[in-house]
Amino acid sequence: MSENGGASKSNSTNGAGHCGSSFFKEPKAVMSVSKYERFYKVNHKNRGIAVILNHEHFWTKNKSKKQPNPGTNADLMSFEKALKSLGFKTLIYEDQTVQSIMNILEDVSEEDHSDNDCFILVCLTCGKQGNLRARDNLYNPSILWSYFTAKKCSTLAGKPKLFFIQAREEEETDGSQVDSYPSYTIPDQADVLIVSVIPNMFTFNKETQSSWFAQVLCEKLNTYGFSEDILTLLTSVNRKIAENFESFIVNNPNKQVKKEIPHITSMLTRQLQFYKKDCDEQDNAVASMTVLDTPYKMNHKNRGFAVILNHKIFDTKDPRPGTSVDVNNLEKSLQRLGFHTEPYLNLTVAKIKQVLKKVSEKDHSDNDCFLLVCLTHGSLRGISASDNLYNPNELWSLFTEEKCPTLAGKPKLFFIQACQGGNLDAGVRLYSQVDSGSPYKIPSDPDFLIASATVPGFVAWRSWFIKVLSEKLDEFGFTEDLLTLLTYVSCSVAVDFDSYCPSNPANHGKKQIPSINSTLTRKLKFSENI
C-alpha cells in the first residue's frame, strides 16, 4: 500500500464508520473540546497522574549486580517537585522489573482518567542501543506508551500523553561504540509527545551526577510551567542544554566535550499549556503573555534554499498521480515565505546525493535557514528514488554543523510525504461534548526539524500532509511559530481526513497522524520583511 492507495474524504466521519464497523469494534471516547480548538482543555477537575519509573540498581541475568545509576535520585526529586507544582498526582516506582513495569502501566491505563487533563510518564534509567534498562533486563521503550493509545485507554483519548525519557549511557565492556539513535517505533495514535535523551549520549552533570536534561527541564517547568506552551518550553530546554552543557569524562578522551540534544517527537494535535487551577481566566491570560525565549534570527539577506524532491515515475513502482499539483501549491507557499525554490523531478539515488552535496557546499551565510521537501513512496526499509530505495538519513546527513558550517545555528527543516510501512490506522471516534454531533535516525545535532506525513510502520494516505501543510503555511506562515503551525497541520490531518475507498472496505475510513521530530533550540517564525 502506498500513499496513493486510496482517495481521501474530508470531514467524512460517517464514511469512516460505515465500512469499518464490520471489521473492528470502534472505540468510543468523549472529550469536552471542539475538534478545531487550538488548545487542549486543561480545566478538568484534576491535572492528572504522573508516573515516575526510577531505576538506580540493576541485576544481570545471573543475578550479579550491575553498575548503579548515580544521580538518579536527585533527578527523581527534581521531577517530583516540578510535577507536583503543576498539580500532578505523582506515583513513584523504584527499581522495577520489566514485568512489574508492564503491570503498573496496565493498571494505570485501566483507571478512569475522565476528570484528568492529561497523563505524564517519566523514566529515569540506563540503556543501550535504543533500549531501556529495567532492574532485570532491557526492554523496548515503546512498551511505555503502548498502553495509552486511544483504543486501550479511551478516557485519555483526545488528551495529551507526555513521556520523558532520561536514559544514561551504559558502559560497554569491550570499548565498542554502538549507534546513538533510538530504534523504537513511535505510537500510531495522536496526542502523544515523547521527549527522549537516548542511551550513548553524554547526559550527566559531573559534579552532581544528575542529568542535564532533568536539571534543565525541571528548572523550566518550575519557572515557566504556567506561562508557556509545552513545545516552546521544551525548545528552550534544548537551547540551554546545547549552549551551556558538554561532557567531562576524565578517563575517556573520546567522550570529552560531547553535546546532548533531547529529541522532541510530537504527535500533539493542539497546543498544550498548563494553567493554575486556583486562578481565574484573567490571571492565566496575563501569565500566558510571558516570553520565554528569543527566536531564530530571520532577518538575513535571503530566506534560504528550499529543495523539492518530487517523485512521480518509478522504475518498478506505481506512479504517483497528482503529485505535480501538490508541488505547484507547495512551491507557491514557500516562495511566498521568501524561499528560493529548487524543484527536482524523478531523480535517481545517485543524483539525489549529488544534488544534496552541491547544496550543502553552498555558502548559506546570508540565508535564514534551509528547507527540503521529499514527496515519494516509502516503507520501513526506506524511501524511493526513481530507481531504488535509500535511507532517508541521506537527506539530512550533509547538513550538520560539521559538514555545512554556514548553516550552523540555523534551522534545517525537512518535510517527508511518504509511507513508512503498510499498517493501517482505523482511528478512534471522539464524541465531543461541545460539538454534539525503520525508524529513521534523527540527527543528534541541534537545530533540525523533520516532519513526516505519518509515523513509522504506517501508510501515508494520498497527500493529506502536504496539502494541509501548504494551506497552513499560507494562512499562518507569518503569524505563528513553526512548531505551533505544524501542530495545526497535525490536527487537520487527524480530524479532517479519512481514506475513501468503499470498494476496498479494509482500506476505507482509515486515519493518519503526522510525526514531528525536533532538536530546534529556538522558536522559528518567518518575518515578512523579505
TrEMBL record:
Source organism of this protein record: Graphocephala atropunctata
Domain Caspase family p10 span(s) in chain numbering: 182-276, 438-528
Name of protein: Caspase family p20 domain-containing protein
Domain Caspase family p20: 46-172, 302-423
A Pfam match: Peptidase_C14
CDD domains associated with the record: CASc
GO biological process: apoptotic process; positive regulation of neuron apoptotic process; proteolysis
GO molecular function: cysteine-type endopeptidase activity
Protein family: Belongs to the peptidase C14A family.
GO annotations of cellular component type: cytoplasm
InterPro entries for this protein: Caspase-like_dom_sf (IPR029030), Caspase_cys_AS (IPR033139), Pept_C14 (IPR002398), Pept_C14_caspase (IPR011600), Pept_C14_p10 (IPR002138), Pept_C14_p20 (IPR001309), Pept_C14A (IPR015917)
